[in-house]
Amino acid sequence: MSAEFEIILIAVLTAIACALPGVFLVLRGLAMMTDAITHTMLLGIVLAFFMTNDLSSPWLILGAALIAVVTVWLTETLTRTRLVAEDSAIGVVFPLLFSIAIILISQGSGHVHLDTDSVLLGELAFAPFDRMVVAGHDLGARGIYLALTLVALHLLFIPLFFKELKISTFDPMLGAVMGFVPALIHYGLMTLVSVTAVGAFQAVGAILVVAFMIGPPLSAYLLTHDLKRMLGLSALYAAAAGVLGFFLATALDVSIAGSMAMVTGVFFALTFLLAPERGYVASRVRRRRQKEAYAQATLLLHLVHHQDTDRAAEENGRATLGLHLHWSDQKVARQLSSLLASGDARLEGEQVVATPQGRVRAEALAASLLALG
């Protein structure tokens, strides 16, 4: 197995492991919690190192996971007081714990290689050098097995608690009525997110963990309303970002993690613009069509309302419609052309007249407006 393939495999597996729980973070409005967790867990690493003086100790991972859960708990506690909004609570807890970690690193571990840049940015290029050796046999890069473990954990947890996660995400009150404990599901999910962040940041860094947890789920959210499809699309987006990001970094000789994060952002930007239903272009086209349909309906109702009155010649005159509707000549010409083409109106000299078909449509429009009112 080549080093390049190992890097790609670690990136893809890590990306999928981050994207799957990220779906529920996005749906719950907790996207920024990921950023907080991936930074504040540095405090757990530092504290555990001070106790063990061993950078390879498993206590560092445990410490990081513990502080990540503490971050969630502190944020939730502040939010529950209703004195502080959730985003404000994150903005207080995140800098506090992260700054404490930075101070401890700068003051107490200057003689040890605890590099904050490495923690934030990661370096996938070095991942193949950390080998998994059992009984003298090289089984491959250690990061592959760690990422596989994370993916397996999600594939076990999410299907097992899928119903509970779905109900507590979209309707926690219903979950409580059905006998679920929404708080327990929430902290179980956030613990899973914490463990994922801790396991992933060693290879890809905190910034890429955030990119993988939020970017692919957001892109998938713009493409589907179905939760299962969203999970699948998130995994596909994440895997594609890992592969394309690696080849882009190789071609441009730039940071692998930075390149993958950029590709994740590009994927989101393209989806945001071009998604068939929720994309920016589609929504603009839909709004334009709605405006045109509303304008046509307004013109048609105006014609029918004034058609059989003494003022019909003036109100429905081709040259005076814009004056009474407060429209420009171009708008009148465009909407009138549409009504004539659809057969809802016809010209009788210089007067615009609604056809029987147009009258039926106007009556239906009036009835729908009354129902809305």
Give an account of the 3D structure.
The radius of gyration is 29 Å and the shape is elongated. It has a two-stranded antiparallel ribbon with strand order 1-2. A two-stranded antiparallel sheet has the order 3-4. The chain folds into two domains: 3-278, Orthogonal Bundle (ABC transporter involved in vitamin B12 uptake, BtuC), CATH 1.10.3470.10; 284-372, Arc Repressor Mutant, subunit A (Orthogonal Bundle). It is built from 16 helices and four strands. The chain has helices spanning 3-27, 31-52, 58-80, 86-108, 116-121, 142-160, 162-170, 172-177, 182-221, 227-252, 256-274, 280-306, 312-315, 321-325, 329-342, 356-372, and strands at 131-134, 137-141, 345-348, 351-354. It is 76% helix and 5% strand. With 373 residues, it is mainly α.
Brief write-up:
This protein is mainly alpha-helical and 373 residues long. Helix content is 76%, strand content 5%. The chain has helices at 3-27, 31-52, 58-80, 86-108, 116-121, 142-160, 162-170, 172-177, 182-221, 227-252, 256-274, 280-306, 312-315, 321-325, 329-342, 356-372, and strands at residues 131-134, 137-141, 345-348, 351-354.
